[in-house]
Amino acid sequence: MRTILITLLALLAVSPAGLAQNKGAAGAAKPKGLVRVNSTLQSYSAAQPWERTNPVRRRGLGAVLPGKRILTTAEMAADATYIELESSDGTRTAPATVLALDYEANLALLAPEDPALAGWLQDIKPLRPNGAVTIGETVNIWQLEDNGEAIRTSGTVRSVDLLSTFIEGHYFLAYEVKASMQSASSSYTLPVTRDGKLIGVLTSYSSKDQISDVVAPEIIESFLADVKDGTYEGFPSLGIATVLTEDPLFRDYLGLTDDQGGIYISRVVPGSAANDSGLEAGDVILRIDGKAIDRRGYYDDPLYGRLFWSHLVRGMKKVGDALKLDILREGKPETITANVRRAPEKLIPDHIHDSPPAYLIKGGLVFQELSRQYLEAYGDKWQTRAPLGLLDALRNPEDYEEGRNRLIFLSRVIATPATIGYENVGNRIVTEVNGQPIADMESLVEAFRQPTDELHMIRIDDVPYVLYLDAEISDVVDKQLLESGLQSLSRIRE
Amino acid sequence: MSRLLPALLGALLFIPPISAEKTLPLVAEATGADLEAPVPPPPPSDIYRSVVRVEVATQVADYRTPWNSGRFSGGTGTGFLIGNNRFLTNAHVVSNARRILITKRGSAQKFPARVIHIAHDCDLALLAVEDFTPFDDLPYLEFGGVPPLESQVRAIGYPVGGDRISVTRGVVSRIDFRPYSHSRVDSHLVVQIDAAINPGNSGGPVLQDGKVVGVAFQGLRQADNTGYIIPTPVIRRFLKDVADGTYDKYVDLGVTEFPLHNPAMRAALGLPDDGFGVLVASVLPEGPCDGILEAGDVLLAIDGKKIDNSGNITVDGEKVVLHEIVERKFAGDTVELDYRRGEDQRSATITLKPFPHARIFAMRYGERPRYVFFAGLVFQPLDFNLYATYQFESPRVRKIYQNYVKDALFKEREDVVILTRIESDRLTTFITGFAGSVVNEINGTKVKNLRHAHALLYAPDPPEFIEIKLEGVPRPIVIPSAEAKAASERIMQSAGIYRPYFLDEAPVSAE
């Protein structure tokens, strides 16, 4: 979804005010509830996790909400080292802080760091979130000219669906707007309104198809409600992997009749709401909260028509809510109630934005906790180019979960006097250090405190299977690495 | 690293099997025993008469449609007479051959020939013509030693760019243990020369002082003027191996070594810092050292030759990898190993044996691909050809392939059976996405090999549903037995699959 889009990015509109009227669909208008958001993002280097990568700058628009809160996308704030609010005409700025960030739903709520510096925000009339969209209706997408004039592009809501707009695999209610937009600065994300009310946040625009993806107002409202009650919890999940049942042979095999729908549970995540509720792999879910689920996983939504079942959990519930499931188990109907909650932490997290990667350097051996982001750093073809052993762990974490909270691996070897002969060893899963099983970075750090006979012994999952380090030489090497500009030899997850 | 591990090196490329030229030794022995020329070497022009052009028509199996005939193609190479109706050439020149014709220098007449022995692991083959009479007067080419560095050699052959014999001069620039690209998995001694070896040169003799010092066989695509030749120790081994009428292939220690440069690792293993000894990182299950060596042992000497910390030994003043010792031996031969385990110094006599499971990583030639077809599903055993054809993306398939030998997966799976294709049909509309997966179970039974899969799929008294469980696939594939037969017939008809299975490996020609 993010693939084509965002061509609008940082292009500056060349001509002065009043250009690019688009068949009356777009036009200059009074800016209302708009503020520029300028962020500087710096993630951490996959190869050298102790340091940050080169900064990336993103400029987008935020929607000013009552109480001087600014709503934008998580992509504008994830890994941000500095966020600044800027008035539409570019004359005033104020540093901002993040109040809440939801990577999965791609939403962020900002506030001025020092209200005294953001007095100018008073003059901006806030937008209020409101309602739901209707397919076919017209909404307005807002951009800003350099001179501060607002450009309004009207477009039609084409469809409503669940989209994953930031973190892969997390799908939330969103809609598509067909509208032809122009290049303008601060267009990384844009507010969408209807009748002067906030009705979405744009996450992407494809100039080829002239289609924008917009986070639905329901998701924004859930996000804001969650923030309001004090602690931000996030969106709940059930914790199952499913397979569709369109294959008539498979349906016969499961004993499903032709008038039934149903989705087949292929895996129940340990420690999840589904696991606690007693759901099992092999069960077929027929109804969720009374809504019949068809063989392709869709239910009939009163507002939007066919929607994928996961919206009934992630979009309609909050953490702690009960979910009623009518299932078929070995051909017999049963009813199960699950109390949905946040998904348990994964062995290999989907992302590590804003949480600096945990690492440890010992004598030149660099250990890290595996994350999907590490593998994605292998580029576009990471799914085939990344190290096979690590990819397998990402795809089949259940085979690696026992005794582990995180997957620790030797990511690379820095050539030092302690690592002579080990230079080509890398991307090996660590199983044991100094006789201690390794469950996470803390246990690795602890294990390295106890060398035997002045030697560290590291067991890995591939040739040469065992590495030794001289404890004394490693300590000297570590000291030298620090002196040569490495700021710290380790970082533990908070 | 042992040469049994899949070496997916892209650097070395075949010289396409186009031509080979040959020279001839004077000795009349059919096998390539060391030939001390009993008569003075003939002038070069006379030797060149025994270098022949080999024209090959090939049929290359298509692993994507294993029921089809494959691709008909061809090429030329070079060969040379080394004995009574024995022509030496490269295996790759005559691989997948359906017809071989040999042409004498300066003649247009083509003489039918056949493969007597073919060794894909060292890229050599012996040919014979049906009627040797026209070749009776030709001298046999004679073998020399390994040419020294910087010495000059001549490559003779019939490369592209003309019909007549071609001679190229070059200088020996390196002698090394290098991959042989024909099988994709084997490494042997190689002599590098700075003469370009071009398509068609393959199989041709490389001469020094009137004797064969190698067979031209491959080049390096990204470097000009670099040619590789198979030196005489490898050729002699091949000829000795086939002397009993069959080619028994190379043997291997079945050990993965890791260099012992690290002082801490040496200290942990109780070794002095003297530059000797290499770590046994792993021992191949069921290999010749299984049960004798263990991971963590340190190899100190092989056949009395001290092993340095990179796994090299010194032979005739040259550093070579320790596998060179095993290289020259045969199945049933023994090798003496001195090694260290903990504080103990030990010795063992290893009896070498072939290790067929490792051939899963080798390119196959001249074999008809095995497959089983069932109700739109195509099952094939995993090997290099299949892997290269389908470029499997699933990490599980890739991991099973890579660890097949190392983790002794062959004990449970003689074949790794893959569901490679799913033909279009109303029965298969919703399962096409499952192609490219490893088959674990059929009807609750673990699949051992392709023949087993066939027996389970075509069981005489099947359950209501044939249930196929795939590795890493979230649900089974189910085919109602009542519909299977009709579906198989219908789909075979529409997809042009003329027979439902092929289970036997059919070797091409005599081997």
Provide keyphrases for this structure:
heterodimer; A: 494 residues; mainly beta; eight-stranded antiparallel β-sheet; six-stranded antiparallel β-barrel; 9 helices; 13% helix; 35% strand; flat; disordered N terminus; B: 511 residues; Thrombin, subunit H; Pdz3 Domain; N-terminal domain of MutM-like DNA repair proteins; 3 domains; six-stranded antiparallel beta barrel; 29 strands; disordered C terminus
Can you offer a commentary on this structure?
Chain A is mainly beta. Chain A is built from 9 helices and 29 strands. Chain A has helices at 217-228, 248-254, 273-277, 310-314, 372-376, 382-385, 388-395, 441-447, 471-483, and strands at residues 26-29, 34-41, 56-65, 69-72, 80-86, 93-102, 107-112, 138-144, 150-163, 172-178, 190-194, 197-206, 211-215, 240-243, 263-268, 284-288, 291-292, 298-301, 305-308, 322-329, 332-339, 359-362, 365-369, 408-413, 428-433, 436-437, 455-460, 466-470, 490-491. In chain A, a hairpin with a 5-residue loop joins strand 27 (455-460) and strand 28. The radius of gyration of chain A is 26 Å and the shape is flat. The two termini of chain A are 32 Å apart. The relative contact order of chain A is 0.10. Residues 1-27 of chain A have low confidence and may be disordered. The model of chain B is unreliable at 1-38 and 506-511 (pLDDT under 50). Chain B has 9 helices and 29 strands. Chain B has 511 residues and is mainly β. Chain B folds into 3 domains: 2-34 and 44-242, Beta Barrel (Thrombin, subunit H), CATH 2.40.10; 255-351, PDZ domain (Pdz3 Domain, Roll), CATH 2.30.42.10; 367-502, N-terminal domain of MutM-like DNA repair proteins. Helices cover 13% and strands 35% of the residues of chain B. In chain B, a hairpin with a 2-residue loop joins strand 16 (298-302) and strand 17 (305-306). The longest helix of chain B has 15 residues, at 481-495. At the A-B interface, helix 2, strand 15, helix 7, strand 27 and strand 28 of A face helix 4, strand 15, helix 7 and strand 28 of B.
